[in-house]
Specification:
Layout: H1 5-29, E1 37-39, E2 42-44, E3 49-55, H2 61-66, E4 77-84, E5 90-93, E6 105-108, H3 113-146
Antiparallel strand pairs: 1-2, 3-4, 5-6
C-alpha cells in the first residue's frame, strides 16, 4: 500500500545510517592496525572505509516540474558501495615496531579519529532524525485510523 511508502523510505534510511555507524566503528577499531591486507609480498596497513549512499532514483528537476512522480516507484535510500580511502598512509618513526622499515618508519592506517568521530556524529544525527520522521508518520497513520471511530 502507498500509505506505508514514507515508512519504507525512512526504514531504508535507518538501515543505511546504521551501516555508516558500523563502518565508522570498524575504522576506529582498526586505527592502529598495521597489518590489514597482504599485497605484493608485504603487509599493508588498514585502509579507511567509507559508505556511499544515494536515493534509489534521482529524478531531474524538469521531470518533477512537468509530471507527478509515479507512486509505485521507490525512493528508498540505498548503499551503493563501501569504498576505501586512498589517502596516503601515515608514517610514524618507531624503530622498535615489528613492522618498521629499514629507516625505522612504520606505515600506519589513514584513519583520522577526529574525522571518524565527525562522521559518527553525522550518522547518529541522521539516524535520530529518521527515527523522529518514522514515529511522526506512525502517529499520523494512527490518528487517521481513529477518524473512523
Amino acid at each position: 500500500m502507498t500509505i506505508f511508502r514514507n515508512m519504507n523510505i525512512t526504514s531504508s534510511a535507518l538501515t543505511a545510517n546504521r551501516l555508516r555507524m558500523d563502518v565508522v566503528s570498524s575504522n576506529m577499531a582498526n586505527a592502529e592496525t598495521t597489518r590489514g591486507t597482504y599485497v605484493n609480498g608485504e603487509w599493508q596497513p588498514y585502509k579507511r572505509k567509507m559508505v556511499v549512499i544515494q536515493s534509489d532514483r534521482s529524478p531531474s528537476f524538469s521531470s518533477l516540474l512537468h509530471s507527478e512522480i509515479n507512486k509505485n516507484q521507490n525512493n528508498d535510500v540505498k548503499v551503493t558501495d563501501i569504498v576505501e580511502d586512498n589517502t596516503p598512509f601515515n608514517l610514524v618513526y618507531n624503530p622498535t615496531h615489528p613492522d618498521a622499515n629499514d629507516q625505522g618508519y612504520v606505515k600506519m592506517p589513514n584513519v583520522d579519529p577526529l574525522k571518524e568521530m565527525t562522521d559518527l556524529i553525522s550518522a547518529t544525527r541522521s539516524y535520530e532524525a529518521n527515527v523522529t520522521v518514522f514515529n511522526t508518520n506512525k502517529s499520523i497513520l494512527t490518528k487517521a485510523l481513529e477518524i473512523g471511530k
